[in-house]
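Researcher: Next entry in the queue.
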Amino acid sequence: MKAYSDTLHGSALPDAAQTRPLLLARWLMAVAALVVMMVIVGGITRLTESGLSITEWKPVTGILPPLSEAQWQAEFAAYRQIPEYLQINGPAGMTMADYKFIYFWEWVHRLLGRVIGIAFALPLAWYWIKGFIPAGYKPRLLALLALGALQGVFGWLMVRSGIDAQAVAEARTSVSHYWLSIHLMTALFTLGGLVWTALDLRGHADGIARARLLPFGLAVFIILALQMLFGAWMAGLDAGYVARDWPLMQGAFVPAGIDWSQGVWHAVTADPFLIHFIHRWWAWVAVGVLIVLARKDRNRGSRPASIAIHAAFGTQILLGIATVMTGVALWIAVAHQGVGALLVMATAWGVHVLGTQQQQRQRAHTGKPLAKAQAQAN
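Model: Structure for this entry, 378 residues:
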């Protein structure tokens, strides 16, 4: 990006105008790394069936795990009241040691959420007070803060869907896959927003106006979001277990187990066989548009973004196939979810490159000075 600045302006911006946006960009990328870790731990929590182990939401006092035997017994007693224990883990002979294992992962997941909140909110307040935030960025940073808060709320609503009165009445032993998808998609949307804003701030340090979201970039995001959504539903419905062969499912291209009796919409959003089928094959639509995106980035001089996109979706496809063929082996499935988060980051980078270069071409064509172009972009 510095090369672009030198080409356009021939001189560097004042030190403060460069160092402060770069500081903010590094901070946002650090938070993004924590979000990726959160997605990975969330995957472990889901795959180990740990998400319902803590039956209360205590945003402040819940930061500490049980510290005495009496506290552990109280937590275990509360867990023994929910359908997951009554129908699955109780009959399977769950011990206190088993319970502590699943409690650990859910506690780590919630603790990491608190760490992310602090890692975003406290520096934001400091940078705000010190006047480090460039004009036009405060609303976006507040929106990211709000998304983080919503993520916590959605996480609890997801957990509650597996322990509330309706879950007990229906003898439901897992969380709603709809709430799980909302929880995960909010995290991925926040991750994309963090990366995009960090890249805008890096560009700001070099005197480059904020990137625009072009129609093609929006289409890429929508296609990838649909793939991620079906992946979340796969996790929520344990749909990865319905077939272990690939590319066929149970020996056929279209699996025989799809239930159409409740209508097409219900089948598309709640039938494990159909959701698994869609997730498998929509992936190739996503791959197609990502290849086009990567080539556009390479043609515009951003080979690193192109490489990152290819590496991310290539690894993701291989991990997805391996997840199916190993019967959802824990660490392969976790890696699949983690690389999915990295794919979101790489895609945000690639789409941002297109929007940034569009801005530069427009300025070069119109001959407008940078300050005016940035004001119009704001």
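Model: Residues 99 and 147 are 31 Å apart (CA to CA).
Researcher: Noted, moving on.
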